[in-house]
Amino acid sequence: MYSNRKFYENYVSTRDVELLHDYTMRVLKEVGVSFACEEALEVFKKHGANVDGNIVKFDETLLNKALETVPKSLTIYTPDGETKIGERFRPKTVGCYGPPTFLFEDDTYRIAQKDDMVKFLKLMDTSDVTDFVNNSAYDTPDLDKTQDDFYMPQVAMCLKYSKKPTYGNVANSMNVRGKSLKQAAKDIAVLYKEFYDIWDKPVLLTNCCALSPLGYSYEVLDNIIGLVEEGQPVVVITCSMTNLTAPASLMGSVVQNNATILAGIVLTQLINPGTPVLYGSVSTASDMRTVTCATGAPEAQLIQMSALALGRYYQVPVRTGICVTDALKPDYQAGVESFINLMPSYLGKADFILNNAGILSSFAVGSYEKYIMDEEINRVLMRLNKGIDVSDTKGEKILAEIKKAGPLGNFLSGRTPKEYRQEHHLTNLFNRKAGNPQPLYEEIGDIRDRACKIIEERVESYKLPDLTKTQQDILNRFLPEDEKF
Amino acid sequence: MYSNRKFYENYVSTRDVELLHDYTMRVLKEVGVSFACEEALEVFKKHGANVDGNIVKFDETLLNKALETVPKSLTIYTPDGETKIGERFRPKTVGCYGPPTFLFEDDTYRIAQKDDMVKFLKLMDTSDVTDFVNNSAYDTPDLDKTQDDFYMPQVAMCLKYSKKPTYGNVANSMNVRGKSLKQAAKDIAVLYKEFYDIWDKPVLLTNCCALSPLGYSYEVLDNIIGLVEEGQPVVVITCSMTNLTAPASLMGSVVQNNATILAGIVLTQLINPGTPVLYGSVSTASDMRTVTCATGAPEAQLIQMSALALGRYYQVPVRTGICVTDALKPDYQAGVESFINLMPSYLGKADFILNNAGILSSFAVGSYEKYIMDEEINRVLMRLNKGIDVSDTKGEKILAEIKKAGPLGNFLSGRTPKEYRQEHHLTNLFNRKAGNPQPLYEEIGDIRDRACKIIEERVESYKLPDLTKTQQDILNRFLPEDEKF
Q1: CATH number given to B64-386
Q2: B interface mutation test: which of A13, A106, A212, A249 has the most B CBs within 10 A?
Q3: CA distance A296 to chain B (A)
Q4: Which of A168, B55, B137, B225 could connect to B32 by a Cys-Cys bridge, CB 3.0–4.6 Å?
């Protein structure tokens, strides 16, 4: 069990949730949500929604019907095990997700190439705090882009480099041609089923992002329909920005996000009732001085807490995130903002966290070094969530210890006691040494240098998974030429 | 009003608090607390405590009697206003407190001199998030140490450089000779009374740190008695480390700290019932690999949350802290750990925060740059604590805005709306710009460079307070030669 510390309840009361829900229903009934996909519109029409052009409006009856069939938790299956996602389980995580540019260890920014993405896969595979692997950079320039489908090769890379389950992105019109995106999504699902030889269970989890305000693109809808028809769960999320793609106020952002997410969730249940779906939001604040998103802002945390409160209210598994910052380097700002953003997810709690490590400059830059640093935040938050063990048994033992040490005595004895080891998180990255600061700094080096050493060790310790001949053959049908077995 | 979000309640239940209290009482009755001061022992004896040598033991009757007279809140008076400390008020803060070494803007560590301490006073005086000034470095090498009392000159410096109230430290046997420390503490209190011409109210707040485990030095006790006799409030704190000066477990640390703090609080009330006193703890974890304190550890936050829960239980104003880190530079680790440590204080909440900015390397190094960065954490936490405004009035307005924008519309209009400005914290230090990262980084520079610019601006904007001739004359009696008016 993982305690849900319900951090959000200190910010969003039951009354607040009910009010947010009421205004959400009015948005769904009076404004509606745009679905740019005939098949989706037909589904809504068939189930009695009010459909006018691309705009779908519905009331609480249809919402309740759909929510009734959303599973309270879900499991992703691979041949190596089951990954459970739901309120009673530790939040499951995905690392750095998709930025085109990386900050490299030589402190330069460059467009990421396939091998850089592979290096990230190795870090995610060897991480103790990242559960899912994924493509850390999409559509790198060195892929063979003359192919009609150069998305599938990227999908196959995840299966080649890690036995951890994969978190997927949607196929889109840039990386798939010559077939519908619905078919592309189905093809991906079937690849996983075949590779794992698991045909009737969820084997893949995919990110499906709405267009704020209140819309879904045909690309995302095609993917949702294809995946859901294949019985594969999706994560429906919004990624709005206050005063740009959402109202100026936080309440406005939350109401609009909620309406959008619920409309997507309803669609999944109308297509294939009982398909697992996650309620997700990484909607954020903006900075109107620069007209940019402000992912590291405290308002982003408040929006996330509201999303957690609403997801729990609807009893749908929740995704929040995100270990993100607007800083360009893994500096003080990056530490503060990443912690702010990841905190509600671990202490809130969320069931699923995308981008639990490795992101800089909003979502635009990936960084191995920051990945290593962010891993530490994940560990710290898990320690915090464990809380403090207060019990009578412990009390008696403590009293004996305090008596033995006595006033002005000390507690340092030969062996470090079990209680210490059980209750203390010991970091391997953050400095804990004290002394004359200048020579000490020369000894321990900059935190970025220390992170670089850990990267090296991790990449060196990495081992390519053992795959069967059948699995290798399956992947060889899709892998980039120089990646084939 | 400042909302108490009671963050700690998610970690420390009512049952936990009661259990912590019960074991605390057993420590106080069965083990006792050492008071190295005859006068203090006499006071305890007179009020029926069990005194054996330096060890004082007492039961709940005496504790309850003392707690009954502790004021629920307190006010520090200066001629310019009142600073209120208590649960209903915003936490009041003191900045960088006392490290002998600073990290300077040229990235070198050096022993701080008087002028460096003055520069810190200027930053604290011009800060929007620091309420009290203090000596950021004590007993700097360039003070005239041939004087019997070179503590008073340092006290006078605070009064010279800022009209904000002062947070004091105890006079000690290093910086005061030729008179008792009780007299030294009284002399300080009288200086404030005379300088402010306020004779019958609290004018000064002073840090009084116990010796863990379970003891008070004669130096601290002399100061407590002197200050309390002058009607001046004190902050009683512990600063223990798990498995070194406290038991290995967090519960053990909390029970021992609680017994120690309560014993100090009882003494203040027995001497002068009704004198304001704060319940304080900055006790922390340790790292047994290096046998150092681990101020940035998540366990430190849990210990702080327990202290908050207990302080509230006893209805005594609470001090926690601390914007501290074990990092040697204001880096990623510093950002994370400072936030971890300051969070329970703002969201918990504490009534008083010492070290709200500017500390590195546990408590050993001060940094102007980190002070500027930490100020931003204080602002972020205050914004977070404001929470999210959910109301019917706002709901109707939002609905109209969402209708106007419509699905796939946008919210960007001519003027940035009032709601945006009301609800968004805009940072002047953290980067919010986005774009091609390399040229952007060259444009904005490193966060430390940006902090240095702010330091310069702040020091330039600083103005020495206008003091009356009488006040100047009072200070001239104590100020170092080159600081006299």
Answers
A1: 3.20.20.480
A2: A249
A3: 9
A4: B55
Minimal CA separation from A77 to chain B, in Å: 33
**Closest to A367 in 3D by CA, of A358, A376, A375, A357:** A358
Whether the predicted interface score ipTM is above 0.95:
yes
Q: What DSSP line would sit under B276-307, residue for residue?
A: -EEEEE--BEEETTTTEEETTSHHHHHHHHHH
3-state SS, one letter per residue, for A75-94: EEEECCEEEEECCCCCCEEE
pLDDT band for position B321 (cuts 50, 70, 90) = confident
DSSP H stretches of helix in A349-444? 368-386, 392-405, 418-423, 437-444
Cβ of B331 and A326 within 8 Å?
A: no
- In what helix (H) or strand (E) does residue B235 lie, and over which residues does it extend? strand B234-238
Which residue in the set A306, A340, A407 is minimally distant from B31, CB to CB? A407
Measured CA distances, B53 to A130, A470, B40 (Å): 57, 81, 12
Distance separating alpha carbons of residues A33 and A10, to the nearest angstrom:
31
- Sheet with A50-52: strands ordered across: A50-52, A55-57, A33-35, A215-216
- A322 preceded by a cis bond (ω within 30 of 0): yes
Q: From the CA of A415, how many Å to the nearest CA of chain B?
A: 10
* Tokens 């998180």, residue located: A425
Residues facing A54 on adjacent strands:
none
Distance CA A216, CA B19 (A): 53
For chain B, the domains span 64-386, 392-423
d(CA B25, CA B32): 10
Is residue B121 very low, low, confident or very high in pLDDT (cuts 50, 70, 90)? very high
pLDDT score for A360:
97
Give the integer Cα–Cα distance in Å for A337 and A431: 20
CA atoms within 13 A on the CB side of A454: 23
pLDDT-flagged residues of chain A (< 50):
none
Which of residues 140 through 199 in chain A touch B, CB cutoff 8 A?
none
Q: Flag whether residue A485 sits within 8 Å of chain B, measured between CB atoms.
A: no
> Would you call A426 an interface residue with chain B, using a CB distance cutoff of 8 Å?
yes
Q: Pick from B299, B388, B423, B452 the residue to mutate for testing the A interface (most A CBs within 10 Å).
A: B388
